[in-house]
Structures are given as structure tokens and as C-alpha cells.
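Example S7 (C-alpha cells).
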């Protein structure tokens, strides 16, 4: 079957067309926009055919449709290297049924968060792309993290030849386990920096550096080129589409649904990449009804879906679900581009409003493009109560981010009466947020240390402590650098000397 090439261009109308491998290498367009495909390809295998494949085989069938300039051997080789023994289950992304919903466990990789699903693959996609395009410079991965992307990117790129990786995280805005995972990272090519600010400060700082043409030219002369491991990189987004297709086909194979029956997908959402991948899956032909977007107290996305106005001018809340503590949801720009009829000029105008005033509003026609979405949110009390509720009902332990989605999912069902099967993206292991999880189940646990709580959680849930946690119990802190937001560029220059 003939497969039409997919090319990539900027959401803001830079004008150039890029192959998939070039888009993966660049990460961010030169005008500050995000790369989007010129069309969303349709699945070219039936759902029944896909249901007979394992995760690796299905991932190839989905990704080949977007990454059209990678050869079959190149892509299969990248997939095999990514989804190997780093994952503690052969299924890679198993489904667990609890309290009337299906939890898609995306935390079985090396760093026990959903970011592993794409960041185990991205280094291989990137180094393959460098060879394909004759790139002879060292790739510098520049990443801002709200807790999970950083560690997953560090684990993926550590000691990968021809790369260096610099991760900025909010010094006081991640969980103790998340921070320990990052600052104990080995690898001569890695640098972890705690910034004095929040995630949005880190993300804005990184984007500003990407847009600094003089700095890029200076580094180019020294043999370096920037790229990104954040979800703004299309090489992060495409692998995420696969697990929604996989979840549907597992339900089909187990005869929990019939072919063509619609499911709903509920995603705890911060930077909007994970739920955008579900939107792409739906537009490829996956039978999906509602895309349920779950926010925490930083409910900028909920308000957007309610009103059509995006407004980041509000108080920033530090919560027990830190990976969602975000007021500038970068990947929403890709959705805006699509609902604006792929009008880059309109998208650029709205993003300029966000940059200048912290706000923009979409028109009535564009609002129509949001009809597939339902927005909801859970505050801290509701999140905690949901962890306790799910545990008491079924013995299943979920983390804080998954609890936000679980609560919003229950609210959606109650408000709409929609009883379609629902897949909830379970984005992190409860072991990553042990104190918040265990306190939710019983406040008496708060008297214990983090690592005592890990052992208690293992007993309570009947699950083994993940290797990722065992590895950091006694690991030495290797990264102690901190900086102000306006010092980020100097830190990068110092590291690349």
C-alpha cells in the first residue's frame, strides 16, 4: 500500500517544510512555533489486525504513518532499543480494571512515569535522524521539567554518544522522590539545575534560549546544536499516540468491547501533550468519544474549555500533583492550530497575545473544534479523597495525578450519564509520590520518612518496590547547581565549555 509522506511545518507559519527526522532534530521551529504534520494519517491496519500485535509491533504500525522518512529497519530498530528490559512488564503498557474504569499503566519504564513511553525512544530517533541528515554537530538537549520529563530524558540520553543534556527544574516545585531521581543521575554528558522559580519560569526560559539566534550561532561555531526532549518535540508526541491505540486493541482482544465501539479517554493534563496524542489517535480513526481533560487546582485548561478564553494571569498553586502545576500549556498551541483550520497566521496572532498579555480568546467557530473535549478539575482535598476511595473500594493504589483524572472521570459520568468504557491514563507510579498517597489512605503515615513509606506502600499494595526507587535509596547527589531564571544561559555556556 502506498503511504503518503507526512511533512512538518510550524504552527506560526515560518513557511519551511521539514521531514519527520528534521523536525525531531530541530525540536522547536525557528519562529518559536511547534511542528505539526501537514495531515493526520489514517490507520492502515484494521483494529482486529492491530489487536493481534504486541506493543512493539503495534507501535511500528502507528509511528510509520507519521515518521515517513525513517526506513522500516531504522524505525523497528529504534522501537526494539526503546521497549526492552528497561520496562518491568512485557506488555509495556498494561490495563488494570478498578471501580468501573480501565487504568492504562504508563509507568512501567525506567523512571516509573509515562514520560518513559516516549523518552526511551527519542534518543534513538534523534541519533538516527542525525545520521540520516549528515549532522556532524553535538546535539545539546535542553529541557524544562515539572518533575517527570527531566528524569526520563536524563535516563534516555545519559552517555549517548554525540549528545549532551541539560535539565532545568523548579527547585521547590517537585516531590522529594522526583528531585532525588534527577540529582543522582549519572552520566558525563548530563547536567541538572534547580531554578529559583516555578515550571512556567523554567519552560519560558528554555523557549527564550531556543529563540536566541545569536546564542545559537555562537554555539554552532563551537560544534553544538540545540534540540528539545520536552513534549514540544514531535518525536515525543508521536510515540504517545501508540498507547491509546494499544489500549483500545487490548480491550478488543479481551472482548471487553466490540470493534468500532467508542471509548472515552481521560487524561491528567498539564502541558497538554498526553491528551493531544489521544486527539491525534481519534483523528487517525480510533473509535473515541470524549477526550476528558483533567486539571488540578491550576485549572487554566478547565477554564479554557468552559469559556474559550485562555488566561495564565492567575495565582500559581504548588500541589501534590506537581507534573500538572503548569499555567502555560505549550502543546495546546497545536490544538489551536488545528481548530483554527490549520491557519498559522491566526495561531501566531493568538500566541502573540499569550506572550504579550498572558491571555487570548478563540472565536465561536474555533470553539466548535473543542466539542470532543470535556474539561474538569480536582482540588487537593478531592484528589486525596479519590486515592482513598479507589483503594478502599478495590485495593488498587493510584498516584496523585491519576487520582485527579479518576475524580474528574467519575464527575463526568455522574454529570452526563455517559456509560461508555473509559480508559484513564495512569501517568505515574504511586511510589513517586508516596507521602501524598499514603497520607490520603491514612494520615497517620505522615510521621514516617519517605523511604519508610515506600516499604509500607509495597506491603499495602502488594506490589514490589520499583527498581527506580531502590536505585536512589543510597545514591549520592551528583548535581547541586542552582540558579536564577536569568542565569540559565550562563549555566549552559559554562557546561558546554
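Recovered sequence:
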Amino acid at each position: 500500500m502506498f503511504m503518503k509522506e507526512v511533512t512538518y511545518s510550524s504552527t506560526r507559519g515560518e513557511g519551511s517544510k521539514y521531514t519527520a527526522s528534521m523536525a525531531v532534530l530541530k525540536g522547536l521551529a525557528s519562529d518559536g512555533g511547534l511542528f505539526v504534520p501537514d495531515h493526520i494519517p489514517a490507520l492502515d491496519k484494521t483494529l482486529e489486525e492491530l489487536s493481534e500485535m504486541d506493543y512493539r509491533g503495534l507501535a511500528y504500525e502507528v509511528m510509520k504513518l507519521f515518521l515517513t522518512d525513517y526506513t522500516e529497519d531504522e524505525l523497528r530498530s529504534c522501537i526494539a532499543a526503546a521497549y526492552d528490559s528497561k520496562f518491568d512488564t512485557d506488555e509495556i503498557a498494561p490495563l488494570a480494571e478498578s471501580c468501573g474504569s480501565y487504568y492504562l499503566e504508563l509507568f512501567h519504564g525506567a523512571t516509573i512515569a509515562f514520560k518513559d513511553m516516549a523518552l526511551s525512544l527519542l534518543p534513538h530517533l534523534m541519533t538516527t535522524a542525525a545520521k540520516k541528515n549528515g549532522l556532524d554537530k553535538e546535539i545539546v538537549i535542553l529541557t524544562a521539567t515539572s518533575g517527570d520529563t527531566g528524569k526520563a530524558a536524563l535516563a534516555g540520553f545519559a552517555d549517548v554518544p554525540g549528545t549532551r543534556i541539560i535539565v532545568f527544574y523548579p527547585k521547590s516545585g517537585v516531590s522529594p522522590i522526583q528531585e532525588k531521581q534527577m540529582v543522582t543521575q549519572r552520566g558525563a554528558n548530563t547536567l541538572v539545575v534547580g531554578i529559583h522559580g516555578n515550571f512556567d519560569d523554567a519552560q519560558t526560559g528554555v523557549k527564550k534560549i531556543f529563540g536566541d539566534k545569536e546564542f545559537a550561532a555562537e554555539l554552532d561555531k563551537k560544534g553544538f546544536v540545540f534540540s528539545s526532549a520536552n513534549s514540544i518535540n514531535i518525536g515525543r508526541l508521536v510515540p504517545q499516540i501508540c498507547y491509546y491505540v494499544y489500549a483500545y486493541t487490548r480491550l478488543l482482544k479481551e472482548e471487553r468491547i466490540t470493534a468500532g465501539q467508542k471509548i472515552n479517554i481521560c487524561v491528567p493534563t498539564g502541558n497538554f501533550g498526553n491528551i493531544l496524542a489521544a486527539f491525534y489517535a481519534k483523528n487517525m480513526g480510533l473509535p473515541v468519544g470524549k477526550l476528558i481533560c483533567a486539571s488540578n487546582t491550576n485549572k487554566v485548561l478547565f477554564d479554557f474549555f468552559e469559556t474559550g478564553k485562555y488566561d495564565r494571569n492567575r495565582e500559581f498553586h504548588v500541589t501534590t500533583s506537581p507534573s500538572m502545576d503548569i499555567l502555560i500549556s505549550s502543546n495546546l498551541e497545536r490544538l489551536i492550530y488545528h481548530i483554527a483550520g490549520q491557519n498559522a497566521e491566526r495561531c501566531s496572532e493568538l500566541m502573540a497575545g499569550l506572550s504579550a498579555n498572558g491571555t487570548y480568546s478563540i472565536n465561536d467557530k474555533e470553539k466548535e473544534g473543542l466539542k470532543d473535549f470535556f474539561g474538569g478539575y480536582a482540588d487537593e482535598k478531592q484528589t486525596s479523597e479519590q486515592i482513598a476511595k479507589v483503594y478502599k473500594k478495590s485495593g488498587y493504589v493510584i498516584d496523585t495525578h491519576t487520582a485527579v483524572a479518576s475524580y474528574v472521570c467519575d464527575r463526568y459520568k455522574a454529570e452526563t450519564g455517559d456509560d461508555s468504557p473509559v480508559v484513564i491514563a495512569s501517568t505515574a507510579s504511586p511510589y513517586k509520590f508516596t507521602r501524598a498517597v499514603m497520607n490520603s489512605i491514612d494520615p497517620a503515615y505522615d510521621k514516617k520518612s519517605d523511604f519508610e513509606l515506600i516499604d509500607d506502600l509495597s506491603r499495602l499494595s502488594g506490589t514490589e518496590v520499583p527498581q527506580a526507587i531502590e536505585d536512589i535509596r543510597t545514591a549520592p547527589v551528583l548535581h547541586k547547581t542552582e540558579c536564577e531564571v536569568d542565569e540559565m544561559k550562563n549555566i549552559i555556556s559554562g557546561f558546554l565549555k
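Notes on this example. Residues 20 and 68 are 7 Å apart (CA to CA).
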